[in-house]
Each structure stands twice: as structure tokens, then as C-alpha cells.
Design a protein that fits this description.
Length: 210
């Protein structure tokens, strides 16, 4: 089954790994049981889960501690596992996690600077494929502004990165920040989260396709 073990990775910080990890996990929770492995020592998802009304209610189990062990154990128990990888400090751990999952999503902000800074992460994917040849990987544009066509520099930088980009990206929306603040996902924001839910579902459909 495709997209069962999904890692959100980018050695560049602040590109949306944790935001995407928790919202994708919430979307997957409607399809089967989900564990969210917090591999970031900053523990963003652990903090979120401590006041999240979601965790008990919708079958998202947040695991902190040894990420590799948590990933292995969660893969035995849960239908889906989503891993929030750490930023730059721990490149080796990101590589080891990539060797264990079936899918990597690399969120990138739509600026050439951010894309260039993601080249090291793309290289980690290629390295991980030596031991995990079936690893599927995409870039995901995050915080896209409405109506802004991608600049020529951006399109060129994307083409140079040598990994496909998911056909649907994520817009910059207050709903993502609001959900995080309220200890929820965009699925629990009702009307306020409708557009965000739609784009998370588009991503899941593409990633879960065999
Ligand atoms: N699509 C979006 N719309 C609006 N705000 C967003 C969006 N994606 C992320 N953010 C905000 O941008 C900031 C960085 O996002 P996030 O913490 O998910 O990134 P990260 O890659 O996990 O960062 P780190 O590398 O520090 O772990 C957060 O304040 C988050 O709320
Ligand atoms: Mg994070």
C-alpha cells in the first residue's frame, strides 16, 4: 500500500514540516489509525498534542522519544505513520528515517532561496534510495500566495532539484496557524478550515495513489 509511512523532511527549518505532518495525520485518521512520530528534538508536535483535544478522539497517537524505534513499533500497530523530521541539526537521523519509510514529502516555500537551501535534502533522498530503492518522494510547495504565478527563477530552481513536485501545493492560510494554536487540525475548524481541508485531501489523494 502506497503512502503508509510518510516522512515530512527538509533540513531547512520553518518550511512547514510540522504543520503538514499534523494535518496529513488528521486526514489519514479518517481512513485508519495513525501514529505521529515526533522526531524533532524541539518537540513541536509533542507540545501541540499536550493540549490537543484531537489526540484521544481521532486515533492520532503522538510518539516522542527514540524516533527510529517509535517508527518501527508504530508501523507494526498502525495503518499509517507520519514522521515529523528534525531540521538541519540532525542530518543523519533524517537519512535513517528516510531509509525506513515508503514516502518522503519535502515542503518548500515558494522562493528560489528556499529551494536552493533544500538541495541537501534532495540529496539525502537519493542517498536513502541506495538502501530503500522503492522510496517515493515529492516536493510540496507551501505558503503559496493566491494568484502569484511561479517566477521563472522558481520554475528553474524546481526543475534543477531533480524530484517531482506534487501537483497541488498549500496556500498560506490563517487556518493552519489557528488550528495549531487551538490544538486542532484544520479538519476540526469546520467552515473556517474548509479550503485547507480540501488542499490537504488533494495531497493525500496524490500520495496514496498506487
Ligand atoms: N500554509 C501555511 N499557511 C500559514 N502559515 C503556515 C503555513 N505553513 C506553515 N505555517 C506557519 O509557518 C511557521 C513554520 O511552520 P512549521 O513549524 O510547520 O515549519 P517546520 O518546518 O516544522 O519548522 P522547524 O524546522 O522549525 O521544525 C509556523 O508558524 C506555521 O504556523
Ligand atoms: Mg517542525
Amino acid at each position: 500500500m502506497s503512502g503508509r509511512l510518510i516522512a515530512l523532511a527538509n533540513l531547512k527549518g520553518g518550511c512547514g514540516k510540522s504543520t503538514l505532518a499534523l494535518n496529513l495525520a488528521a486526514g489519514l485518521a479518517r481512513r485508519g489509525s495513525v501514529a505521529l512520530v515526533d522526531a524533532d528534538p524541539q518537540g513541536a508536535l509533542r507540545h501541540w498534542s499536550e493540549w490537543s483535544p484531537l489526540v484521544g478522539e481521532s486515533e492520532i497517537t503522538v510518539l516522542s522519544g527514540d524516533p527510529l524505534q517509535n517508527l518501527r513499533e508504530a508501523a507494526q500497530i498502525h495503518r499509517y505513520v507520519v514522521v515529523d523530521c528534525p531540521p538541519s541539526l540532525d542530518m543523519d537521523l533524517t537519512g535513517e528515517l528516510m531509509a525506513q519509510v515508503d514516502t518522503v514529502l519535502i515542503p518548500v516555500l515558494p522562493s528560489p532561496l528556499d529551494l536552493w537551501a533544500s538541495a541537501g535534502t534532495v540529496e539525502s533522498v537519493h542517498n536513502a534510495r541506495r538502501i530503500n530503492p522503492g522510496l517515493r518522494a515529492w516536493l510540496v510547495l507551501n505558503q503559496v500566495e493566491p494568484s502569484s504565478a511561479l517566477s521563472r527563477a522558481m520554475t528553474q530552481a524546481l526543475a534543477n532539484l531533480d524530484l517531482p513536485t506534487l501537483s497541488n501545493g498549500i496556500r498560506r492560510r490563517a487556518a493552519y496557524r489557528l488550528a495549531m494554536l487551538e490544538g486542532k487540525s484544520v479538519y476540526q475548524l469546520n467552515a473556517r478550515g474548509r479550503e485547507a481541508v480540501r488542499e490537504i485531501e488533494w495531497i493525500l489523494e496524490e500520495v496514496l495513489r498506487p
